[in-house]
Amino acid sequence: MSELERDRREVAAVLQQPGVRPDPSLRITRRTFVHRSCVVGAATVAETFAWWPLLNTLDIAYAAEAPFKFAWISDTHLYPKSLNTRFVEKTVRAAKEVQAMSPPADFLIFGGDLAQLGKVEELELGVEILKEVNIRKVYIPGEHDWYLDMGKKWGELFGQPNWTFDHKGVRFVGLDTVSRGPDYWTAKKMSPEERMGHMATLDGTVAGPWAGVGRDQLDWLQKTLANWDRNRPVVIFSHNPLYEYYPPWNFWVRDWREVNEVLKPYTKVTNIHGHTHQVLYNEIGTMRSIGMLATSWPWPYAPEGVPKLTKPMIRVDPGDHFDGVGWAKIDVSAQDKVEAEYIMWRKQVYAQSPDDYAKSIPEVLRPRIADGIWPY
């Protein structure tokens, strides 16, 4: 039996396992991931493409008025070319591959951390590279873009860090999850470079719980969705995940419970986020969260708190700069589906989904890890 055929049978066996089936009236199925990494080996080109799965399939009622797709790139972490060309080359590659999509994507979302240290030349280099993509581009910031000059250059280049628009029956919302860090730097008389260096470490014991949405933006989000049918789909883009994954690395937003309260009335919510540089999937209530890859490097999974609906992608080859990284394509169809595919540059990470059980067995919200670290 070929390795490809064995992988097919193993995945099929997982998909056929019995489980708790949701109420059919919910019309939401096949959302729980089983991530699979497969080496195709000697398979023919025809076999390879016959078994090229979409990485996750989310059935969403009334998903779109017409089929469309968009692309996602984030976490490029660009240095000036004089310091590092490796991240530049990978960003160039991602831009060229997005531009080569046929038919073209309707738009590109950039999910934050365009720059590594927030310098003007880093941000402008990102703009220059992404000019290769001749479709609408919309940006949200990452902490690496912000804390050198507190978002001044970002605002000049891209405007408001939060925004909303409707497209073919879907409401899209971009959230700023990085700019509301509590000011610990003034009292310590940090220079802008020192402040940026502290934020770039992601260490919650150094910079504190800086990731958050903020009361003002929560109110804005509520107003933004107030006139939207609660049974129509909402897709929210954020740099950080909108749940508590691992606060010591700031893999969360500190007011995630309030975010979920605002979104609770809406039955078709998808959050697409960057920041973690890894394949993630989580569900809380009616919101499912999809973690995306970076073009720069893959982060390791946290030592605890990995969502129970995530099967981590296999560890990458540390000697291969292109392993474990890439970008993503998301399709929204008239057949009530949102399909996201990770465009991996090395090993293919497969994810398919048995019947969704999370509607019947919702995740139990645990006490916040951060409560024992940073009182606020």
Number-wise, the strands total 14
Strand order of the largest sheet: 2-13-12-3-4-5
* Overall mean pLDDT: 79
Helix content: 10-25%
Instruction: Please give the largest β-sheet.
Output: 6 strands, mixed
Radius of gyration: 20 Å
H and E order: HEHEEHEHEHHEEHHHEHEEEEEE
Distance between the termini: 58 Å
Q: Which consecutive residue ranges, at least 5 long each, have pLDDT under 50?
A: 10-63, 350-376
Beta-strand content estimate: 15-25%
Structural class: alpha/beta
Oligomer: single chain
Q: Specify the number of helices.
A: 10
Q: Tell me, what's the shape?
A: globular
Describe the structure.
The protein has 376 residues and is α/β, with parallel strands linked by helices. The chain has helices spanning 3-15, 45-50, 86-99, 120-130, 143-146, 152-158, 192-200, 204-207, 215-225, 256-263, and strands spanning 34-38, 56-59, 68-73, 107-110, 136-139, 163-167, 170-174, 234-238, 269-273, 280-284, 287-291, 326-333, 337-344, 348-352. A six-stranded mixed β-sheet has the order 2-13-12-3-4-5. It has a six-stranded mixed β-sheet with strand order 6-7-8-9-11-10, covered by helices on one side. A two-stranded antiparallel ribbon has the order 1-14. The model is unreliable at 10-63 and 350-376 (pLDDT under 50).
